[in-house]
Design brief:
The complex is a heterodimer of chains A (353) and B (389). Chain A is 57% helix and 9% strand. In chain A, the strands form three sheets. In chain A, strands 1-3-4-7 form a four-stranded mixed β-sheet. Chain A has a three-stranded antiparallel β-sheet with strand order 2-6-5, with no helix packed on it. Chain A has a two-stranded antiparallel ribbon with strand order 8-9. Chain A is built from eleven helices and nine strands. Chain A folds into two domains: 179 residues, Acyl-CoA dehydrogenase/oxidase, N-terminal domain (Butyryl-Coa Dehydrogenase, subunit A, domain 1, Orthogonal Bundle); 150 residues, Butyryl-CoA Dehydrogenase, subunit A, domain 3 (Up-down Bundle). Chain A has 353 residues and is of the alpha+beta class. The two termini of chain A are 19 Å apart. With 389 residues, chain B is an alpha+beta fold. Chain B has three domains: 82 residues, no CATH class; 109 residues, Butyryl-CoA Dehydrogenase, subunit A, domain 2; 135 residues, Butyryl-CoA Dehydrogenase, subunit A, domain 3 (Up-down Bundle), CATH 1.20.140. In chain B, a hairpin with a 5-residue loop joins β6 and β7. In chain B, α4 packs across α6, α7 packs parallel to α9 and α8 packs antiparallel against α9. Chain B is globular, with a radius of gyration of 21 Å. Classes of the chains: A alpha+beta (353), B alpha+beta (389). Chains A and B meet through α7, β9, α8, α9 and α11 of A and α1, α7, α8, α9 and α11 of B. The structure holds flavin-adenine dinucleotide (FAD). Flavin-adenine dinucleotide binds next to β1 and α11 of chain B.
């Protein structure tokens, strides 16, 4: 029993943090809002140089061959930087899905270019008809009655669905399932889709941790500088307690997220419940951080110009991605109350036989 | 990251489970807030001690079994799973004990720890005074050196189980010229010392278990001073870390409550009784938060075993467990409907009266061990670094 990260894992996290602090400052994020696609192939190449798209791609396909336990810390940094390039669909979801599909031809065709930063994949979420970043994807993984399909972008028609977060581009997808695109059917398709959902939700939860940390840091900085009544507003107890509450929510959500990473990496029986708890708690911590941070910034925070809303919008977006909080709450409650197994069979503490 | 147990840990869990199954009293003991219950709980502690399970993480020489903190967590899980009695000597074994281990002299360790482990000596905590609650640095009770003795004067209050305890640990002002955190000394006091009057106070549960304690020229030998003279505050802060942090409220306690709450919800729904729609989500939430507390504690223990320390983050724990405990009991009472008001003995209460007891108990959590407002101040100032003034 050792519930902590290794030094190597922490080092990877720091490397990514430093990299994003340099390459993905908020000016860059906001700059992308104004471009036609919202995405930057040059930036994606830089991400590939430090291995991010291929984190979960096996080494024989040119990836880093890491696990979700390593990746979870990377995604915390992605959230801290408000990086919205399609790392979740491509790196966190599609790469392991292709690997697990058991389809060697598919793996040989797509995993090397994913790891090299030369291919982007969009993935339909079982919880929403909206597919983010489909317009820049080379491949779309979509669900139909007869199974999962891997479809080239030129075989689908996209309709843009403008959203509240300028950091993302959302689309609905019109397409016809073709036999030659099908990569899984029946129970295997269900299994892959569920694993994709859990991986996507985990990656979002980790980003929500980073988002929440960033919002707290911005609020602490701002309230330490802004003065009213002759003192920094951060010395007022009402302000302090607001932020202390965020810190409590953050730290307990973090525990869920880190455990969920372990549960996904080891595919434990309670994996989906663990992921839902991570997504619920991290999502709520980030949403609460968005509201409280706005409150303590006053009217300045209510402007488009101030950077606060970059992260507020990420918090809102991430909450809806890969199962919104309500969806995960329903899944958790269903597991706890509607299944036959006793509550004893869930939970962290293992049972002796 | 490795979330599995070693064969030794599994074996320890089995051993503890078997012992507890064979020895935990079948009937619930009367409340340790009563004389009768206090004695019954002391008898249970003796049995636990004889079985070798009283203080698993303590060294063998002091009546423990030299286990590490992980085994302690495992033991706690088994303890609550078995429905074993509350720990009547919790102020001693969980708070003072670790402090003595850290700062006590070899003589003090040999003198106090074994009898603490067996609960032959039960301890009360004497920090609060009428004018020193949240503002603990405002302590006014004095301890003035006179030869090899301290002469104690003043008053302590709200000492849990102080009505029945044998010893008290507290802070006294040893330098009458001093103010605030300086000039305080941590002293261990036998409560049968002449000049000490213990006056029981009834608690919210209608039981006389709190006490206010008056010192009127009570003489205590200097060898009962813990840590250096005038450095009591630092010693006390070490105890406070244990109290808010790890020991006092292990996660097993809340996981057990959460499991009982899930069962209660299922049973209530199955009985056909109307259940407010929001409660399904609230119960799930409670269960999830109890999990979070367990996970977080395992992370803390992993860090401590790797040589790390527990600092101001114990304030996060204290807020989290105390507010979770209130929420869980509150939710249970909502599920109980009209039965929520019945005392455990009421014939119509069936087996649900314990929830009311638990609720009243849980309500104190946000107050004792430093109120949650004080913890929020600590988080804001010491963890987040927000301006004090
Ligand atoms: C069940 C129970 C058991 C206890 N057991 C013991 C024991 O064994 N030994 C012992 O020594 N003591 C014990 N106590 C006492 C406990 O430590 C104190 O109650 C606690 O420290 C608060 O002090 P107070 O009651 O004087 O409240 P006060 O300090 O008067 O506080 C009243 C309210 O004001 C708020 N407040 C005070 N100062 C601030 C501030 N700076 N910022 C914001 N809000 C503030 C508090 O948070 C609280 O809400 C126990 C209390 C309870 C309820």
């Amino acid at each position: 029993m050792e519930f902590m990260f290794s030094e190597d894992q922490r080092l990877l996290q720091e490397t990514v943090r430093d990299f994003l602090a340099g390459e993905c400052p908020v000016e860059f994020v906001r700059g992308q809002w104004e471009t036609e696609t919202g995405r930057s192939p040059e930036f994606w190449s830089k991400l590939a140089e430090i291995g991010i798209p291929g984190l979960l791609v096996p080494e024989e396909y040119g990836g880093l061959g890491m696990s979700e336990i390593d990746a979870v810390l990377v995604f915390v940094e992605v959230g801290r930087a408000a990086l919205a390039e399609p790392v979740v669909p491509t790196a966190a979801v599609a790469a392991p899905l292709i690997r697990e599909s058991g389809n060697t031809a598919l793996a040989e065709r797509w995993l090397p270019p994913i790891a090299a930063g030369e291919a982007l994949v969009a993935v339909a979420q079982p919880t929403s008809p909206l597919v983010p970043e489909a317009h820049v994807a080379d491949l779309l993984i979509l669900r139909a009655e007869d199974g999962l399909h891997a479809v080239p972008r030129d075989a689908v028609r996209l309709t843009a669905q403008p959203s509240n977060d300028p950091s993302q581009r959302l689309f609905t997808v019109d397409w016809k399932p073709r036999n030659e695109d099908r990569i899984a059917s029946g129970a295997q398709a269900d299994r892959l889709e569920l694993a994709a959902l859990d991986r996507g939700a985990l990656a979002c939860a980790a980003q929500q941790i980073g988002t929440c940390e960033r919002l707290i840091a911005m609020s602490v900085d701002y309230t330490s500088q802004r003065r009213q009544f002759g003192v920094p507003i951060g010395s007022f107890q009402a302000v302090k307690h607001h932020l202390a509450n965020l810190k409590v929510a953050l730290e307990y959500a973090r525990s869920h997220v880190e455990r969920a990473a372990h549960s996904v990496a080891h595919d434990v029986p309670c994996r989906s419940v663990d992921v839902s708890m991570a997504k619920i708690s991290a999502g709520e911590a980030a949403l609460q951080a968005a509201e409280v941070s706005l409150q303590v910034h006053g009217a300045l925070g209510y402007t488009w110009e101030q950077d606060l809303h970059v992260w507020m919008r990420r918090a809102w977006t991430l909450d809806l991605a890969w199962g919104e909080t309500a969806w995960h709450r329903a899944r958790l409650a269903g597991a706890l109350f509607d299944e036959e197994r006793p509550a004893e069979s869930f939970g962290f503490t293992p049972r002796v036989g | 990251m490795d979330l599995s147990y070693t064969p030794e840990q599994e074996a320890f869990r089995k051993e503890a489970r078997a012992w507890l199954e064979a020895n935990v009293p079948k009937e619930r003991l009367p409340s340790f807030d009563t004389r009768e219950g206090f004695d019954a709980h002391c008898a249970w502690e003796k049995k636990l001690h004889a079985g070798g399970f009283a203080m698993v993480p303590w060294p063998v020489e002091y009546g423990g079994r030299g286990a590490d903190l992980l085994e302690w967590l495992i033991f706690e899980e088994e303890y609550y799973r078995a429905g074993a009695p509350g720990r009547v000597n919790q102020n001693g074994i969980f708070l003072l004990g670790p402090t003595i281990m850290e700062v006590g002299t070899p003589e003090q360790k040999a003198r106090f720890l074994p009898k603490m482990a067996s609960s032959e000596e039960v301890w009360a905590q004497g920090w609060s005074e009428p004018n020193a609650g949240s503002d603990m640095a405002n302590i006014q009770a004095t301890a003035i050196r006179d030869g090899d003795d301290y002469v104690l004067n003043g008053q302590k209050t709200w000492a849990s189980r102080g009505a029945f305890a044998h010893w008290l640990f507290g802070m006294f002002r040893s330098d009458p010229e001093s103010t605030r955190h300086r000039g305080l000394t941590f002293i261990l006091v036998p409560l049968d010392t002449p000049g000490i009057t213990v006056r029981p106070i009834e608690k919210l549960n209608h039981k006389k278990a709190f006490a206010e304690i008056f010192f009127d020229d009570a003489r205590v030998p200097v060898r009962y001073q813990l840590g250096e003279e005038g450095k009591g505050w630092d010693v006390a802060m070490a105890t406070a870390g244990f109290e808010r942090g790890l020991m006092l409220r292990s996660p097993a306690r809340f996981q057990d409550t959460a499991r009982r709450l899930v069962d209660l919800y299922r049973k209530t729904v199955a009985s056909g009784q109307p259940v407010a729609p929001g409660l399904r989500d609230t119960v799930a939430r409670c269960w999830m938060d109890a999990e979070a507390y367990a996970l977080n504690t395992y992370q803390t223990v992993s860090r401590l075993l790797a040589g790390g320390k527990i600092g101001a983050e114990s304030s996060l724990n204290k807020i989290f467990w105390s507010e979770l405990d209130v929420r869980m009991h509150e939710t249970a009472l909502k599920l109980l409907g009209h039965r929520a008001e019945l005392l455990p003995g009421a014939p119509a209460a069936g087996d649900v009266g314990e929830w009311l007891d638990g609720y009243i108990f849980a309500l104190a959590g946000p107050i004792y061990a430093g109120t949650n407002e004080i913890q929020r101040n600590i988080i804001a100032e010491r963890i987040l670094g927000m301006p004090r003034k």
